[in-house]
């Protein structure tokens, strides 16, 4: 156990230091970025250890594992949902999610809004945008999103809190910078045409390989998995 805890602490501290350094470079307050620990591939004992080290923002990509872990672990954790969301799992997912990052269609948004109204919940979501043009990536195309925006903003129970994107997977994190910058600019564009109650304050962008560049471009939420659990392969 000593080993697991020591290794995790080292990984976590290293990532936190890199987040702080990126904030300094970008003249941002370190509190303006939250580290979300992506636990989708992590063993349960790794997750409990991570929580002991103070990490309270955690993310899962499957409803089943989200529900199991949210039920089992401390009630004051914030669980983020980052995976493809099937419409038949909406009810269960919104019950456990502090924030859904992967809202990728108008139909899904309307479904969540209807179920939220029935359940008297106010789920928070981020709109996933596909800026890399890769066909295998989920999310709205930019032009499509701009066109649909007035209709999306008509939801009554869902709160749209910002945007999320996944950069193309490349070795050089600098290659992701234009994508992150584009998401930030798109947020500003959409904010300008949004109704008053819609506040797009969150930009969820940056993963293990590119979170520092994402922070320099305005990320408020970075989703880090493999860098956090590196060296723990059982
Ligand atoms: C798995 C996953 C991550 C974490 O990726 P790492 O490269 O392991 O840090 C972040 N975001 C989403 C949407 C994911 O599915």
Automatic annotation (TrEMBL):
InterPro entries: Ala_racemase_N, PLP-binding_barrel, PyrdxlP_homeostasis. One of its GO terms (molecular function) is pyridoxal phosphate binding. Pyridoxal 5'-phosphate (PLP)-binding protein, which is involved in PLP homeostasis. Belongs to the pyridoxal phosphate-binding protein YggS/PROSC family. Gene3D superfamilies: Alanine racemase (3.20.20.10). Keywords: Pyridoxal phosphate. The modification N6-(pyridoxal phosphate)lysine is found at residue 40. Its cofactor is pyridoxal 5'-phosphate. Pfam families: Ala_racemase_N. Signal peptide: none annotated. This is Pyridoxal phosphate homeostasis protein. It comes from Gimesia algae. Residues 32-230 form the Alanine racemase N-terminal domain. The keyword NADP does not apply.
